[in-house]
Write a structure and sequence with these properties.
globular, 3 domains, six-stranded antiparallel β-sheet, five-stranded antiparallel β-sheet, OB fold (Dihydrolipoamide Acetyltransferase, E2P), single chain, Transl_elong_KOW-like, mainly beta, Elong-fact-P_C, elongation factor, 189 residues, Rib_uL2_dom2, translation elongation factor activity, 53% strand, SH3 type barrels
């Protein structure tokens, strides 16, 4: 693959660093006064999970790695990690806990489809949809007379994630949650 200037790299891009495939997790262009600009970036190795903090001049380059995204259904979690099944080939893809952060794990629901990301035929992680339908499993009852505008309570979803929801939401209700920040979007059917 061709080299890509580090100034053009964004979160989610895959690069080769230290003879390992890494995914960019954060990048920022810094231009201090009376100094040359540089790129401060963090990359995570997809094989060993190690984080690297890099400081490179804006004219340096890193080798790009091709990312492939494929739909898989989350099947179950066991001691080895998280199992995703390809819907057509029924191939089981195992993703270790080290490749999924706590936020991402909170959105995993059995039977839901996710994009599994591969870099050089190695699993790099998963890509969450913009929002996801979750079932509320536990929610305190709303207090009568507590009906002022924008009053929220904490509810627990089927994955164990906690979401702030309006008072009228109760156990068994399906809600839509924005995966970017975990906010309640509305009731779902």
């Amino acid at each position: 693959m061709p080299a890509t200037p580090v100034i053009n790299l964004r979160k989610g891009h895959a690069v080769r660093y230290n003879n390992d495939v890494c995914v960019v997790t954060d990048t920022e262009l810094k231009t201090p006064p009376r100094m040359a600009s540089f790129v401060q970036m963090s990359v995570r190795s997809i094989t060993i999970g190690k984080m690297y903090n890099l400081r490179m001049t804006s004219n340096e380059s890193l080798e790009s790695v091709n990312l492939v995204k494929d739909n898989h259904e989350f099947s179950y979690k066991d001691g080895d990690g998280y199992h995703f099944i390809h819907p057509e080939t029924f191939e089981d893809v195992l993703i270790g806990e080290d490749k999924l952060d706590a936020k991402t794990r909170g959105y995993l629901i059995e039977g839901q489809k996710y994009l599994v990301v591969f870099a050089d035929d190695v699993v790099a992680g998963i890509e969450l949809p913009a929002n996801i339908i979750m079932t509320v499993t536990d929610s305190p009852a709303g207090v009568k007379g507590d009906s002022a505008n924008n009053v929220y309570k904490e509810a627990t979803t089927e994955s164990g994630m906690r979401v702030q929801v309006p008072l009228f939401i109760g156990p068994g209700d399906k809600i839509s949650v924005k995966t970017e920040d975990g906010t309640y979007l509305g009731r779902a059917n």
